[in-house]
Amino acid sequence: VQLVESGGGLVQAGGSLRLSCTAFGRTFSSLSMGWFRQAPGKEREFVARINWRWSDGSTYSADSVKGRFTISRDNAKNTVYLQMNSLKPEDTAVYYCAAAYGRSWSRSNEIDYWGQGTQVTVSS
């Protein structure tokens, strides 16, 4: 499975960005998808996930982004999105698309596939 991300960039505090991640591979329908992020000098942390394999579309987000970030999917395009609103300087990080065969994951060691990462920088 290959994950290809796009949509990062530079934005002012309070602004918005949308990240996209398209999955390629025969086992795509068996995966749950989501996002992690890693700021300089910090560990990679969970951001959000959406259940795909079980087709219920349920989502789960980290407390730090609840109410500001929304994860969604387009089944026809094999793509998951992360809409980021009200961005803060502390959201600055490399954002990684993640895919896993499990359902309730939130740790990086539970992930089966990673994207290459896309930089998000929020200026104050």
Word description of this protein:
With 124 residues, the protein is mainly beta. Helices cover 0% and strands 49% of the residues. Strands 2, 4, 5, 6, 9, 10 and 11 form a seven-stranded mixed beta sheet that branches. A four-stranded antiparallel beta sheet has the order 1-3-8-7, with no helix packed on it. A hairpin with a 4-residue loop joins strand 7 and strand 8. It is globular, with a radius of gyration of 13 Å. The model has no long low-confidence stretch (mean pLDDT 92).
Number of helices: 0
- Euclidean distance between termini CA atoms: 37 Å
Order of helices and strands: EEEEEEEEEEE
Tally of strands:
11
Mean pLDDT: 92
Assembly form of the protein: single chain
How would you describe the shape? globular
Q: Taking Cα atoms only, what radius of gyration do you get, to the nearest Å?
A: 13 Å
Class derived from helix and strand content? mainly beta
| Largest sheet features | 7 strands, mixed
What low-confidence regions span 5 or more consecutive residues with pLDDT below 50? none
Strand content: over 45%
Helix content: under 10%
Brief summary of the model shown:
This protein is mostly beta strands and 124 residues long.
Task: State the main characteristics.
globular, 11 strands, single chain, 49% strand, 0% helix, mainly beta, 124 residues, seven-stranded mixed β-sheet
